[in-house]
Description:
Layout: H1 3-12, H2 17-39, H3 47-50, H4 54-63, H5 68-110, E1 119-122, E2 128-130, H6 131-143, E3 151-158, E4 161-167, E5 179-184, E6 187-190, H7 223-231, E7 239-250, H8 251-260, E8 268-275, E9 278-281, E10 287-289, H9 309-315, H10 327-343, H11 345-350, H12 358-371, E11 374-382, H13 384-391, E12 396-403
Antiparallel strand pairs: 1-2, 3-4, 4-5, 5-6, 7-11, 7-12, 8-9, 8-10, 8-11
Helix pairs in contact: 2-5, 6-10, 10-12
Amino acid sequence: xxxxxxxxxxxxxxxxxxxxxxxxxxxxxxxxxxxxxxxxxxxxxxxxxxxxxxxxxxxxxxxxxxxxxxxxxxxxxxxxxxxxxxxxxxxxxxxxxxxxxxxxxxxxxxxxxxxxxxxxxxxxxxxxxxxxxxxxxxxxxxxxxxxxxxxxxxxxxxxxxxxxxxxxxxxxxxxxxxxxxxxxxxxxxxxxxxxxxxxxxxxxxxxxxxxxxxxxxxxxxxxxxxxxxxxxxxxxxxxxxxxxxxxxxxxxxxxxxxxxxxxxxxxxxxxxxxxxxxxxxxxxxxxxxxxxxxxxxxxxxxxxxxxxxxxxxxxxxxxxxxxxxxxxxxxxxxxxxxxxxxxxxxxxxxxxxxxxxxxxxxxxxxxxxxxxxxxxxxxxxxxxxxxxxxxxxxxxxxxxxxxxx
Length: 405
């Protein structure tokens, strides 16, 4: 008998006792299955039972019309299959999220912050330069006489955080002050903060034509004070000397003085600019390196000509008798540093920016490009005897010294 007719007979009460019990048991089983499916209707994969497996279910129902136990087993198989698919789906999703958190998210966060490992350019020999090495070279040359650094290694720790190692590539005293640091979401921590302190504000004294320094002898003291200090220096120690000129000099005049005094080659020069009422100290007390050891660095030479000291040296090979960088090239070098700074203020701000802002940097660059490069002082490293002899030069008005570590 067809099972549907069997159910009709069950409903009419025309079945014998044994058939009636069998149908009643089948109905109870299928009601239990239906209740279970209703309670778990949102389990992934169960929809396939309703749609993809619908034809199979109908066929199974017809084939097993005389064997209700087989139909129940078939339903159980579909349920187990749905749970397996749901488990695989959830497992794959969890794995994908875990891998994204481990490998994608850390670098995605990096995109929102300064990236010191970005490739800034390649040298002529094909060596890549990371961004922080170029930024450090420009910043320390302009702002930190005696603390020039142009080689920084960095390693990403993820989430905008980097470990840094900052090298010193040359030293007069034979002591190399390498240091390490941490850059975390545009906040720089250096484990030797004294290394990047700005030079003392009273290191240079007043020059007659310079309006922005105090009048008279300045905070550092008089000529006699300088002579007394120099007499008390240690004979064998090296000192960083901040040398104030007796007048503002153009770069050409300074180069002429250096040619006449080759034993006192400046390392770094303090810049001043022409203002409405004479010369003014450049904002932040910036300057440029006149002579120092440096490394080859890659950069955009079309946008920033002669940006690095090494590129200036490359264009001006050392002559047989005396070494000198042309006024044109040193002016271009200083202008390019200021324009690069204006375009990359994020690093200057992390390093306690002294220039001020982008507009000030561009104004200084335009002034120097139009009016020329002028200085009112310079720094060099020497011992007591050398500095005392330098003080006797008629173009030197004051020397302030600090020990070289």
